[in-house]
Input
Amino acid sequence: MPKRWEQELDRLNDVKAPSSVRDRVTSDSHDHRNDPTPNRRQRTIAGVVAFAVFALALAFAAKAFGGRTVSPGGAVSNPAVFTFLVKDDAGTGSYPDATLTFEGAVVGGNGARYGWKVGNAAAVVDTFGAEFQLGNWVVLPAGTAIEVAGSAETVTGWLDQPVGDSEPPSHLYELPTSGARIPGDAGRYVLEFTAHWPQGVREFYFPIKVVTGDVGASLTLQATPDPTASLAYRGAAAPVQVGGYCWGNGQSPTCTNGGAGPFATDQYLQIPQRTELNVYPAFEVEKYSLGLAAGDDPVHQTGPVLPFNGRFDEPGSFVLILSASWSQGDVQFFFPVEVVATASVANSPQPTGGTEPRPQTTEPVPTVSPIPSGGSAIAVP
Amino acid sequence: MDVMEREARIGEASGPTVDLDQLFRAEGDGLFRALCAFTGGRADIAEEATAEAFARLAAYAGTLHDPVAWLYRVGFRAAIDEVRKDARSAPAEDDVTMPIELHGLMDALRELSLNQRAAVVLRHVHGLETAEVADRMGIARPTVRVHLHRARKRLADLLGNEEVE
Output
């Protein structure tokens, strides 16, 4: 027998689209069918344009790279770096934090509640980010090397596998004491780390999605202390422009003009056609949307902003538009992207005007040795 | 790439053709229903978003691998835009134009997040599998499961969890 709430939901089955919607859709459908000429013209133009673009891309690749090509799914040798640091916040004081850096993307870890001492004072800090951000799986290639860095005295790690919607993951095995690597089998896992500092201990969780093919491009966004976003593909980052926005707690927001303008031709981040985009929003991001606009000027767009379905399917030059909302305000970010036809992808130079993704800290990051057999790691001064 | 060039590319693509009339007969009511729930009973916004989604589909006909999933994603996005615009311009309460017998359900749905509403309606009213819900919402399957888990719990609290005839 159904539950009461299910029965209530069933009432929705009586809802039908009004006839006015039906009429509008039918009218659109007929308008579209009765004018076949533009489609033929468009096909002709498309054929000419496609050939021209293909020929230009081939010529460009041959001139720039002497015919060398690199498969978009080629081997990736960069490690995934897990950094554990004590950060300082003007309002709340010091706190333990962790990030994962891979191929230009910097993603925060999910930190659990923790005990922390400052001087003679001790406190238990509850956080609301402890639950897994299941929509925020970081995509990593199978077998990627794991490096641990930061200021923690010791770090131990476990590889876990999620077992249900919101349940804690099950331990698979302790991470090897040296030469630790991301699993070789595709799937979803959780890397669980426990980091020890003199002030206290904190656990961090990193949900990861292991893939055996190309990891795609990454888009990260965060809100503290200012709204920032970065777009990277294979370690190269696109330059970012920010639209005008107001930012604050609702009492006295600070507004900025942004100063966005046209991108230069050498600033476009080249991404092979059919590359997937992995989006890593920070926990505080309420919502975001993505669109693609043809051309080079994010402010004075000449064409429509097309919905972006998460994969760069159409070759050409675009501005990727990210609209993000936080409790502090709404911000638009613009990234220049050149989607290169797969057949002509070469070992392309990446934009000279690009900026590396904004680092989450300016503190020096000491290297931490591999975890010894006792299950702890010692910081190297 | 200018607009004409881009449209030419779109026209050149070789996906399955779409019979808009037939698609509306099959999916129009379902999309409208989902958008009504998604907007918490804003039939006016659901109507606009449904029409907008089908109008965009007409422009992209023949280029989409999964027109139904695309239709829902565009519909949800159009509805979000309208809801946000509306929130900024302080909507009047009497804009809610759902039948009276659905007001209790709509009140409960408004207690959920937008994604929770979409997930629970697609799963429990449309009867879709989690993977299909994820496709139509344009989000990952584990995220759908989380939205469903929270939405069911909240609706059970608000509407009752006892078994009924």
Summary: Chain A touches chain B through 60 residues (CB under 8 Å). The longest helix of chain A spans residues 37-65. The longest strand of chain A covers residues 200-211.
